[in-house]
Design brief:
Elements lengths: L8 E6 L5 E6 L3 E6 L7 E4 L5 E6 L5 E6 L3 E6 L5 E6 L5 E6 L5 E6 L4 E5 L5 E5 L6
Antiparallel strand pairs: 1-2, 2-3, 3-4, 5-6, 6-7, 7-8, 9-10, 10-11, 11-12
Length: about 130
């Protein structure tokens, strides 16, 4: 049994390498785990609200998190430091996706937008509108 979060989990994702996985939780953290250890290897703390989604970068050196604080963070897996903070959404971040080459990150929110981010500069490239109320 894996032990670490004291509150509900909202997301879990395996790394592309398969040996590691990450969790997102109501406790405002994401955690990095190994399949052969029951305690987390790293705790990513910095969001001001629930961490609702988590995703490994294609090169496995970074982890992206989306939160109820309406921000997306990019974390260095080795150091545990937040290396990018993306803001602009007006709702909870519900979904994340990296481009196959790892240069772009898309974030989807309750505000019914998708924002496309350049990881190199940290800047928003585009905002996509068009989703209707469900």
């Amino acid at each position: 049994c894996y032990r670490g979060h004291n509150y509900p989990l909202w997301d879990v994702r395996f790394s592309p390498l398969g040996h590691y996985f990450a969790t997102a939780s109501h406790d405002r953290t994401a955690r990095l785990w190994s399949t052969d250890q029951v305690h987390p290897l790293r705790i990513f703390a910095g969001h001001l609200g629930d961490v609702d989604c988590v995703l490994f970068h294609p090169n496995c050196n970074y982890l992206a998190t989306g939160s109820t604080d309406k921000s997306v963070r990019l974390w260095d897996i080795q150091s545990g430091e937040s290396v990018r903070l993306f803001t602009g959404h007006r709702g909870v971040i519900r979904a994340l996706s990296f481009s196959p080459d790892g240069r772009l990150l898309a974030s989807g929110s309750d505000d019914r937008t998708v924002m496309l981010w350049d990881l190199g500069t940290g800047r928003r490239i585009q905002t996509f509108y068009g989703h209707q109320k469900a």
